[in-house]
Please model this.
Amino acid sequence: MSLVSYNIPNLVQGVSQQPDAQRDPSQGEIQINGMSSIVEGLRKRDPSETVALVSNADFGDCYIHPILRDNVEEYIAVLIPNTSGIPPVKVFDLNGTEQTVNLAAFSAAGSYLGDTNTDAKSEIRAVTIADYTFVTNTTRIPAMDSATAPAVARPATHEALIWVRAATYGQTYRVNINGTEVTVTTAVAPVVSDGSTVTENRISSEDIAQNIINGFSSLSGVSFARSGAVIHVTSSSAITISVTDARSGADISAIFDKVQAFIELPTVAPTGYQITIEGDPGNAFDDYHVSFLPKSGTFGEGTWSETVRPGDKYKIMPDNMPHVLVRQPDGEFYFGRVDGTTRSGTIDGVAWELKIPSWGERIAGDTTTAPDPSFIGHPINDIFIYKNRLGFLSDENVILSRVRSFFDFFPETVTAVLDTDPIDVVASNNRVSVLKYAVPYQDELILFSSQYQFRFNAAETVLTPATAQITVLTQFEIDTNVRPQLAGGGIIFTQANGDFSQFREFSVRGAGTALTADAQDLSGYVSAFVPSSIHNVTVNDTSNAVFAVSNKTGFKDRIYVYKYFTRTTGGGVERAQSSWSYWDFAGADEILAAVCIREVLFSLVRYGTKVYLEKMPAQDRSPEPPTG
Model:
């Protein structure tokens, strides 16, 4: 057999599991602790440096999340299902210094993260938005608080208004309360002449109202109060009221808890009096509810404003809603519910105060016209920001808050649909598609379920409840335990393949009707290389690298590395490098997590029961040697 000789330009294409005849000359069978540099060729990876010992005790099952607020405030948060002796939240800066975390009601805050039965890596998720890191446990089911409207109870169980709408000459006003009738009759004319006697008659709606009250002076069990021409009737037991006049109710009306049109309401009423505006009796969707607020005092002239139907639940219970991890002005952290708590302290003698928001309440309508957000009764699977709205994925729905009001998921009014109202839409499909992840991408939102990828955007230029739409783009199974990551012009996601994992890059090309989407296979030629149970993926956009960590026994001490490089040619975009390899951390028992920050790969590494923060350069080129 004759020798075969050929040139190998470089070895930057990493590992290939293809037969020798099909393998590219620049690929090998194995590559450990190498860096496939598009500039320098294949070189040894840089050594890791121990930054600090962060814990003498093993964290156990935990979820690790980087908090990258800006280039100064950079931390690593460790979220631990509540076990005895270990606080559920730990935060470290990039020097390995542990930060103080104040826990709201330790047992409550810790229990939200779960217990020893919780699979933290797959069931806890977090996202940092400005000063707030939202943490959601995907096994917790949000619910409405048991409190019902009105928030301030009415002073009497049974009440009604009698409104003398007009004072008319020659009119007879009849009011019947619980079978007792009072009649007030007005003069026939303003001026009455009887021979040489001229009588001037002055009448007013206020006087008529007072005469009605006077007529019921002997009626027991019923109380009366008057402001202007409006009488407030209250009783501790049921009351019946009927009113009549000679003009078919044009001059007097009785109001209990509903009217057909807003113009039927007086401009005078007691504080908090509530009325339902029915509109079309056959259409429940045009009903709305109003409550009265006097300009001053408790009974007088004022305005009606929208409110919640009496008896409806109006508050979201914060216990099973996402919790927040917030950095306080004094540099410490706070972890707890979104419940309106106020934190305070002093810095160098100067007082500071931090108001934790609370979830917005239903302030108008009812469960038909302003229904509960669809995450009520379903776990929240992901949290994101899109178009200045806070967003949740729950079941098959995308739920967005009101614009610039991140904690409000109920509309301001039910009499009109505002562009700023919350958005709640479902991903309709032939199969059940529970949405797991949302990734902002090219001014749109790419949604991932276990089998489908969707696009969420506006049918027009502005995102509103009327323009929001969800369309199916591609059908690829994904590993729902791993968050897809933006990488350059695409989104990297993983697929479970038995004992191994596959990687794909989702991308969209074109626009409008010419838009196409696909997910290119990145690991087809190494289909049995990356192990299953990937739980952490991080990206270095500058040097075009993806790093993945597995929780599979026997592979926990490795970081799998994918290096890529694309270039534009006459025929389009070409992937000039697609290199797989892994880095082995000798002596380590487990890589807990890795995060790449400005071309430095920070890792939490467990050796025995101790956990260390380590760092190493992750850049394509060799680091500059130290000077001096």
